[in-house]
Amino acid sequence: MRxxxxxxxxxxxxxxxxxxxxxxxxxxxVASPLDAVKVALVLTVLNAFIRPVLEFFAFPITCxxxxxxxxxxxxxxxxxxxxxxxxxxxxxxxxxxxxxxGFSFISSxxxxxxVEE
Length: 117
Fold this sequence. Notes:
Number of domains: 1
Order of helices and strands: HEHHHEH
Low-confidence stretches: none
Number of strands: 2
Shape: globular
Number of helices: 5
Strand order of the largest sheet: 1-2
Oligomer: single chain
Mean pLDDT: 94
Radius of gyration: 14 Å
Distance between the termini: 12 Å
């Protein structure tokens, strides 16, 4: 049940960011609520399986940059999601970085208040 609640929070976060970010001038587009579900699902799968592999190989660079390279990996996951899905469009690394930061902060903050351990 917790997984379903967390997933719905991530879907709501994607929908919220798809309305919020274009309002402040960033180019992020999610075509429909079904595409928001797909984005949340693909991001969850990529962050569960691909991201740990990338972080393992990028560990020396991450240490040299004092952890800031992990932001690049997060943005890369968003760009990879953009390449895999047709109903999701994000242009540029800065837009992907801001989307990934917003996605992480908002979904984790909402999960902290809603999901009980």
